[in-house]
Design a protein that fits this description.
Chain A: It is found in: Cell membrane. The structure holds two protein chains of two kinds. Chain A is mainly alpha-helical. Helices cover 70% and strands 3% of the residues of chain A. The longest helix of chain A is centred in the last third of the chain and has 28 residues, at 243-270. The chains are: A mainly alpha, B alpha/beta. The interface between A and B is large, with 57 and 51 residues.
């Protein structure tokens, strides 16, 4: 007996939809086994991971706070990936957006600048992110450079730029030389939605972006163009679509969204510019984009789900003393199963019985 | 899904906040937030040793929890908040970058006691504590200069913050007492914990001619590299002798246990107050690992120096201190630099051929 992967004649739309569900199911089964092995009650552990965070107001807010930047970045990335271009440097665009917006916050710090500061910061963040993303896009279009490598390497450049600024020119003069800017003024801070919590306007902005992306992809010619260029480049060329223009466009949009997420994160939950403002959001968003099937609503759900594993993982550490490594294993296994199940979209599994003689066949 | 979640959040908030706040238990719940993994064999490990000490000391009277690998960015505030909401009444946040998040959470939970390591902001319910690590660095500087055959020391810096700068300066001031022409090579790795990068930096330093390696990062990687290459090295944060039995000269170890015991006791007794603690060799918050792999005269010099620092007769930053430009640094503390000058140190002393990044 033999297991064979056989290519399907066309993509299975059913599998495309249920694949993440199967993956999550398999993850839960695997994790349960793991919990038993480390001597924890799997039901209780899964409860802490997935249910507890959804049952109190505070955790729900935190879920949205954590998911907002992931969703924003992943939406942008999904446009690139749909068009079959590979922006891997969202982390760098996130940081550059944060830096550009912070520039205004630092310059106006302590002055009586008006309410225009925050909107201008957000705009600056988005523009800077877009321009930064256009560097790899331009190199690809003009010189044929790999956008994967260029965008990835620009992450380190952005990281060091931020590092330089907070250690040098932008350092808080009253901060004992520690590498951080002064705390932003209230007019340079993203407003909270509720007093006492951490949920900020950024979560609403993320929702608006999800809706906008859904409209763009589902209802506009540009959205159609993006999908056609990605799925059938030759057909797109015959159709008169310029793939170069699309590379620039999708990179600019995804850079702008990453930059916006960056400045919102800095002007929101962090409150000042410092090194380490991103715990790898730009990279985690790649997982979110694929887990969400490059679909805006899917990405929203995937972003919330990934945020849930972070927050649940933390509560598991507190409530059940489950080590952090288990949470990491959890996320790793999830991605593994998602990719594995995705292969079923294009392939089907067939069981091949050993060949028998014709005489046996009659039996 | 998100909108429902948001609506639910709004509803719950409207009907009254604080649902998540746990009911106070009989036991004192003590929480810890760690920057690295408990198995880093360095900074976080030493805090973990401190936690285990309070568990041993107070047994059933307390319940402890820790969160490890909590990054210093936007996540840390949530982690600290989660601990407060889970009913922890005393929370230790053990890295500089947790300062502002700790302060924010402390303001929201006025009844919870917070202890922040290595920072400078405090509040009614937030203490700060740190070690005078430069005292140990001074002893290391003397030993290094005695033991280096080439007269070149290698120093792996994490971030150019005052604590690290003061460690480099203390090393150099001491080393120059032994060998006025001593050289120091510095590599900044921009991380607290990354064994790969730390090892690369150690190799680069050895390639540049250094024969004694010291570091201000949290893993034993540099010790292991020095050990392989037959150089000498110092442990950092914890006694790393098992990673270099023939390599380690000594280590500046952080001994948080006694402080944690004292603070937990105060919390149990109801006498806890917000304080600023800056303790060194004398208070045993900074402890030197055994002096090994050196001749007896060097060992004796190290021990005498340690005793003199404890007795207060030797001050590592005794004036005059010359800046990199050769001009004397203003002496604000009478016969030595004052604590503020050390805690905010942002200059190199004379003889260091390097530039502070970002300056």
């Amino acid at each position: 007996m033999q297991l064979v992967l056989e290519k399907r004649a066309e993509r299975s739309t059913i599998i495309a939809l249920v694949s993440p569900v199967i993956a999550i199911g398999l993850t839960i089964v695997t994790m349960s086994i793991l919990f038993v092995i480390i001597g924890k009650n799997p039901i209780a552990a899964l409860n802490v991971y997935f249910i507890t965070p959804l049952t109190d107001a505070y955790s729900l807010q935190e879920l949205a706070v954590k998911a907002a930047p992931l969703v924003m970045i992943a939406i942008g990335l999904s446009l690139c990936y749909l068009a079959n271009v590979w922006n891997i440097g969202a982390e760098g665009q996130f940081l550059v957006g944060a830096v550009a917006g912070s520039w205004l916050a630092v310059k106006t710090n302590g002055t009586d600048a008006g309410v225009w500061v925050l909107p201008a910061m957000l705009l600056l963040g988005a523009i800077a992110g877009a321009l930064y993303a256009l560097i790899p896009a331009f190199c690809k279009v003009r010189f044929g450079a790999s956008e994967i490598l260029v965008s990835l390497m620009l992450v380190y450049v952005a990281d060091l730029l931020l590092d330089y600024l907070v250690r040098g020119p932008w350092r808080d003069p009253a901060g004992f030389n520690f590498p951080t800017t002064a705390e932003f003024d209230p007019v340079a801070t993203v407003p909270l939605l509720f007093e006492g919590g951490r949920l900020h306007l950024g979560a609403v902005i993320a929702l608006v972006i999800v809706v906008a992306a859904a409209v763009l992809l589902g209802r506009t010619i540009k959205g159609f163009e993006i999908r056609v260029v990605g799925a059938a480049p030759r057909a797109a060329r015959f159709g008169g679509f310029s793939s170069n223009q699309l590379v620039l466009l999708t990179f600019a949009i995804s850079g702008a969204l990453a930059g916006l997420a960056g400045i919102i994160e800095v002007a929101g939950p962090v409150g000042h510019l410092q090194p380490g403002i991103s715990p790898g959001y730009g990279f985690t968003a790649i997982i979110v984009a694929f887990l969400g099937r490059l679909n805006p609503v899917g990405i929203l759900i995937a972003g919330l789900f990934l945020a849930l594993t972070f927050i649940g993982g933390e509560q598991a550490q507190i409530a059940m003393k489950i080590p952090l490594d288990i949470t990491k294993v959890f996320q790793g296994i999830l991605l593994f199963y998602v990719l594995a199940c995705d292969s079923l979209i294009l392939y089907r599994i067939r069981l091949i019985m050993p060949q028998r003689k014709a005489a046996d066949g009659a039996a | 899904m998100n909108r429902k979640a948001l609506a639910a959040a709004a509803l719950l908030l409207a009907t009254g906040l604080g649902l998540g706040a746990a009911v106070a238990a009989d036991k004192l719940k003590v929480g810890f937030v760690y920057i690295g993994p408990v198995g880093d064999f360095g900074w976080t490990y030493q805090h973990e040793v401190g936690r285990q000490m309070i568990v041993k000391e107070f047994g059933d009277k307390i319940e402890t929890t820790y969160l490890e690998n909590v990054s210093e960015g936007p996540d840390s505030e949530r982690s600290i908040e989660q601990l407060a909401r889970a009913g922890n009444q005393l929370i230790f946040t053990t890295s500089f970058g947790y300062m502002d998040p700790t302060l924010k959470v402390a303001k929201r939970h006025p009844k919870v006691m917070f202890e922040h390591a290595t920072g400078f902001k405090r509040d009614k319910n937030m203490s700060s504590y740190s070690g005078r690590f430069f005292e140990g660095r001074y002893i290391q500087g003397l030993i290094a200069a005695k033991m280096s055959k080439k007269g070149v020391l290698g120093y792996i810096g994490s971030f150019p913050i005052p604590e690290v700068i003061s460690g480099i300066n203390a090393t150099m001031v001491a080393a120059q007492k032994i060998n006025p022409d001593i050289k120091i090579k510095i590599i900044w790795v921009n991380t607290w914990f990354d064994p790969g990068k730390e090892a690369d930096a150690a190799k680069a330093l050895l390639d540049q001619g250094a024969d004694v390696i010291m570091q201000h990062t949290d893993s034993p990687a540099a010790m292991q590299v020095a050990s392989e290459r037959g150089a000498l090295a110092f442990g950092q944060d914890s006694d790393m002798i098992k990673f270099g039995p023939k390599t380690q000269l000594t280590a500046v170890t952080n001994n948080w246990g006694p402080y944690y015991v004292e603070r937990v006791k105060a919390a149990l007794d109801g006498t806890w107050k917000s304080e600023d603690t800056w303790a060194g060799l004398k208070e045993k918050m900074v402890v030197m690992a055994p002096y090994t792999n050196m001749p007896d005269d060097v060992k004796k010099m190290a021990m005498d120096t340690e005793a003199a620092i404890i007795a207060g007769t030797l001050k590592p930053f005794k004036c005059p201190i010359m800046g990199q430009d050769g001009k004397e640094v203003e002496c604000k503390g009478g016969d030595a630099l004052d604590p503020g000058q050390v805690l905010g140190m942002n200059f190199y002393v004379k003889g260091i051929d390097d530039k502070i990044p970002g300056k």
